[in-house]
Every structure is written in structure tokens, then in C-alpha cells.
Write a structure and sequence with these properties.
The chain is an alpha+beta fold. The chain has helices at 3-36, 54-60, 65-80, 94-102, 138-150, 188-195; strands spanning 85-87, 118-125, 130-131, 154-155, 167-169, 172-174, 179-181. The protein is globular, with a radius of gyration of 20 Å. It binds zinc ion.
Length: 197
């Protein structure tokens, strides 16, 4: 090995150990966030479900406290029906939302995800053990939305007769089957003002 190869090797090793340090530091941080969360009154939020991963708990902790409560109640209700779920995206920034709209996965920049009030939840397909991201098991999505609605969530994935409700994005029609939102009767503008107060 010549001198510059040795220097490159040293730099690569330093980068690797820094990455490993960052990885473990972040994991630890996520756990602490989730465990330390409290509701409006300062009471700890119950984390009833031992099937919710640490990373999902960290995503849920970014939602408004009342939304976290309603989501955990939904997850619990589904579990008692034998349905496990994967908790996907929760809070998004304005620029994240814009790129999702550009990518054709959403029709609006005025998303409830930006206000800590929306979650993408997917039932675990018992046949595969994987989240049903493709929306194959409509029956499980219907069960998910019925449970979520009983805890105050709004369902925009189905029509009143439980046929799928499609949305039109710049890439065509899509079914956003896992999306639930918690509006508490507010308009988006009211919730936006409240969120940024
Ligand atoms: Zn969504």
C-alpha cells in the first residue's frame, strides 16, 4: 500500500465508525422520544400495543397527543379482532408533502399529514405476514377503517357503501387505502392555524 491508499483507508474507517455511532445514537433517541411522550395534561400516553415497533412509536410520537391516543386505541381494537397493522407515515413537512404530490401519491399540498393529524396504516396480510401495501385484502382495510372511525378518525378511502373511493393525482387514479385522518370537525385552515399557533 502506498501513502495515499493508507490515507484513504483511514478516512473510510473514520467515516464507518461515525456512521455506526450516528445509527445507534438515533435509535436510542427514538426510544426515549416514544417513552417520554405525554398527553395534554402531562400524563404519560399509554403504549398498549407490544406489536408497535420502536421506530413506529417514534413516528406516532410526532402526531398531536389526542391523535396518538386515538391511533393506539384503533391498533388495540384491531388486535382484539386478530388484525395486526403496520404504521407507516405520520407527520410530513410541507416540502415532503410537495414531493409526494409531484410523485403522484397525493392530490393535495394541504394534507392533514402536515398537521400531525394523519397516518398511513396498513393491515398485515396474514397470508404473507407483510403489510398489505397493494390493498389486496379489502376486507381488512374495511375492518381497519370501521375501527378507526369508532375512535374519531375520518375515512376518505371508502364511499358510504364501502366501495373503494379513488383519488386523482397528477399520475392518475390511486387508492389511498391506508390513510386515516383526525380532524375534530376543523377545516384544514383552522387546524393549520392551530398547529402553527
Ligand atoms: Zn396518508
Amino acid at each position: 500500500m502506498n501513502r495515499s491508499q493508507i490515507i484513504l483507508l483511514v478516512i473510510a474507517l473514520a467515516f464507518l465508525s461515525w456512521s455506526a455511532f450516528k445509527f445507534f445514537a438515533n435509535t436510542e433517541e427514538e426510544r426515549t422520544d416514544a417513552e417520554d411522550d405525554t398527553d395534554n395534561e402531562g400524563n404519560p400516553i399509554t403504549l398498549p400495543s407490544n406489536t408497535v415497533s420502536n421506530s413506529a412509536q417514534a413516528r406516532i410520537a410526532k402526531l398531536l397527543p389526542q391523535v396518538q391516543e386515538a391511533l393506539y386505541a384503533t391498533i388495540d381494537g384491531l388486535q382484539s379482532q386478530g388484525i395486526d397493522v403496520h404504521v407507516g407515515e405520520t407527520l410530513r413537512t410541507e416540502s415532503q408533502q410537495q414531493s409526494i404530490v409531484q410523485g403522484g401519491a397525493s392530490a393535495t399540498n394541504r394534507s392533514w399529514h402536515r398537521l400531525g393529524r394523519a397516518i398511513d396504516v396498513y393491515p398485515i396480510n396474514p397470508d404473507t405476514g407483510e403489510p398489505d401495501l397493494a390493498g389486496k385484502r379489502t376486507d381488512l382495510f374495511i375492518a381497519l377503517h370501521k375501527e378507526a372511525m369508532s375512535h374519531g378518525f375520518t375515512n376518505i378511502s371508502f364511499n358510504a357503501d364501502w366501495t373503494k373511493r379513488f383519488i386523482t393525482t397528477n399520475k392518475g387514479k390511486i387508492w389511498d387505502g391506508g390513510h386515516i385522518q383526525y380532524t375534530e370537525g376543523l377545516t384544514w385552515d383552522q387546524a393549520y392555524a392551530q398547529y402553527n399557533a
